[in-house]
Amino acid sequence: MGERAPPPPCRYKAIGGAGFQAGLGGAVLRELHLSLGVDFEGFASPLNAFYGHAAHCSAFPDVDAPFGSRGSFARFRPTRGAYEVNPPFVAGVIDEAAERMLRLLAAAEAAAQPLAFAVVLPGWLDCEGYASLAAAPYLRASVLVAAAD
């Protein structure tokens, strides 16, 4: 008998992290929709996706696809629109997500297409992904919120 993949909670624990990711809540996600037109989450699961069926990417598309996941954010290729990106608080995942967003933004700019990301990250100043996004020419605004808030 072949090996079965561990259930999703074990998978999330396996990637490690500091509290996994920030929980934004409905009020914040509604405001992102109203103010920026965000209607898709770059990192969610079928259990916590806010914008509905097929409006999120997830870490484990093999088990999440039947419940609406559009696959991994690492393979997601939006060309226009506004997206909320709240990756797990794992430096490597943040670095990869930042690199992905910067490539997508450069391509959208070259094609004269409107593309935006509302990104939620821990204030890890020494994290390569955090630093590259903070220094990006695409950055329009940044808000620092204390972890306790």
Give a verbal description of the structure.
By secondary structure, this protein is of the alpha/beta class. Helix content is 33%, strand content 11%. The chain contains 5 helices and 4 strands. The strands form 2 sheets. It has a two-stranded parallel sheet with strand order 1-2. Strands 3-4 form a two-stranded parallel sheet. The chain is globular. It starts with 7 loop residues before the first helix and ends in a 15-residue tail after the last helix. The mean pLDDT is 86.
pLDDT < 50 stretches? none
Q: Please compute the radius of gyration using only Cα atoms.
A: 15 Å
Strand content: 5-15%
What value does the average pLDDT take? Answer: 86
Tell me the strand order in the biggest sheet: 1-2
Gross geometry: globular
Structural class: alpha/beta
> What's the total count of β strands?
4
What level of helicity do the residues show?
25-40%
Q: How many DSSP helices? A: 5
User: What can be said about the biggest beta sheet?
Assistant: 2 strands, parallel
H and E string: HHEEHEHEH
Report, as a whole number of angstroms, the end-to-end distance.
48 Å
